[in-house]
Amino acid sequence: MAAKLKKLNIFIFLFMIPLFSPLLSCSQKRPVLYPNSYLKHVGKEFAEADIDDCIQLAKDYGVDSKSGDRIAKQTAKGATVGGATGAAVGAVTGNLGRGTAVGAAGGAAAAGTREALRSGDHDPVFKRFVEKCLRDKGYEPIGWR
Q1: Longest C-alpha distance within the chain, in Å?
Q2: In angstroms, rounded to a whole number, what is the distance separating the alpha carbons of residues 28 and 12?
Q3: How far apart are CA 31 and CA 18, in angstroms?
């Protein structure tokens, strides 16, 4: 019994690594600008500074991307659904507690991993705010990378 529990803990730990690795990277998606006449006139270096300014302006006005909050919420939902599913399976197989724990861990890991892989995506309102700021400056944002 203890050996199985130890294996389960190792499995959960290894499965959770992808959840946190994107959070440790500094790479966030940034707007891509169409090379219109204004961008050609000011140059890429100046445009990057303007992008930074627009991102900071969005944050100053409370329009942050909040991908970490989304990851936490979806992970909690996954744990709840997985726990309920595991409890149902555990009740049928005669091991309610174990089924609940395994289901909750699996649900949390799956949901957390899915959201972590999307963690570089900004909130749509944040994107629109930054894009409007850039358009007001004379740029033509065409997407995010």
Answers
A1: 72
A2: 27
A3: 25
Q: Give the structural domain span for 83.
A: 66-121
Residue 32 gets which letter from DSSP? E
Are residues 116 and 45 located together in one domain of the fold?
no
Contact 101, 84 (CB under 8 A): no
Evaluate the CA torsion angle 15, 9, 13, 111 in order and state its sign: positive
Q: Helices 67-93 and 96-117 sit at what angle, rounded to 10 degrees?
A: 150
Domain co-membership, 57 together with 96: no
pLDDT digits (tens, 9 = 90+) for 19-48: 554 444 456 899 999 999 999 999 999 999
pLDDT band at 142 (very low <50, low <70, confident <90, very high): very high
